[in-house]
Amino acid sequence: MKRTLLAFATIAILMLSQSVKAQMDVKTLWIDNGDRRIFGKLCKPAKADGKQPIVIVSHGFNGTHHFAQDYFKPLSDLGYQVYCFDFPCGSIHSQSDNNTMNMSIEDEVSDVQAIVKYFSKQKDIDRKHIVLIGESQGGLVSALASARMPKAISQTILIYPAFCIPDNWNSRYPRIEDIPDTTRLWNVPMGRRFFTELHGLKPFDEIKRYKRPVLIIQGDKDRIVSMDDSRKAVEIYKDARLHVIPGAGHGFKPKERENAVEQIISFLKK
């Protein structure tokens, strides 16, 4: 009897797994940005017809596309395609290019813009509904990309966005001549260009150009990114709200991530 029940349970689990897989179609997709080749994963709702909206997800410092794959199922259920990718030079684990000595905020903004332009030309994409999601440094990048192509992005979602990056590093290197050839952050080597570019970067001056809906999600125990910056951004944006997750730090635990995904789904449904 126990063996029979175990067999039924095993079959049920396999059928559920196959059902979940059947709801999504996930493939590797490379996108070119000049001489930069961007590795990513594209998830499509398996049974979607006609044009679909898309969410483009940018990872944080030294992250990869893997963190975004838990968006696949909930956003696919909403009828969205999801593209997550590795910034070239954005991580020592990047499948695009792992030479972090060439990391650059400006290059990453350019990559997001190239990805948006690529999908806006695809026949199965609803160009009126292209959404950006960015985490930490990817949040800063997504915010800048939205501001620089405000008519192309329908909504922007920022997960503990690192608006503080320019001020933090400009405080450490107040003069361009103070910047060394190599700086290590969490044992990740970074070249001089990354910090040189920050001297001319003023995120809060730029983001006000974006007039469409923005959702910012952050934990109130974040020790890396200040809540004050997120509150300031909400005041600057024309249409923005801040969702605070109690007790969450910089990087969400599973339950906190579920909370964030629920907020994202609610935001996109509106």
Describe this structure in words.
This protein is of the alpha/beta class and 270 residues long. Helix content is 37%, strand content 26%. The protein contains nine helices and ten strands. The chain has helices spanning 2-22, 72-77, 105-120, 137-148, 165-172, 192-198, 203-207, 227-236, 254-269, and strands at residues 24-33, 36-45, 52-58, 81-86, 125-135, 155-159, 182-185, 188-191, 214-219, 240-245. Strands 1-2-4-3-5-6-9-10 form an eight-stranded mixed sheet, with helices on both faces. Helix 8 (227-236) links the parallel strand 9 (214-219) and strand 10 (240-245). Helix 3 packs across helix 4 (137-148). Mean pLDDT is 92; it is low at 1-22.
Helical element count? 9
* Binned strand content: 25-35%
> Mind summarizing the main beta sheet?
8 strands, mixed
For the termini, the CA-CA separation is: 50 Å
Question: What portion of residues is helical?
Answer: 25-40%
Strand order of the largest sheet: 1-2-4-3-5-6-9-10
Which structural class matches the secondary elements? alpha/beta
| Element-level helix/strand string | HEEEHEHEHEHEEHHEHEH
In total, how many beta strands? 10
Radius of gyration (Å): 20 Å
The shape, in one word, is: globular
Average predicted local confidence, pLDDT: 92
Low-confidence sequence ranges: 1-22
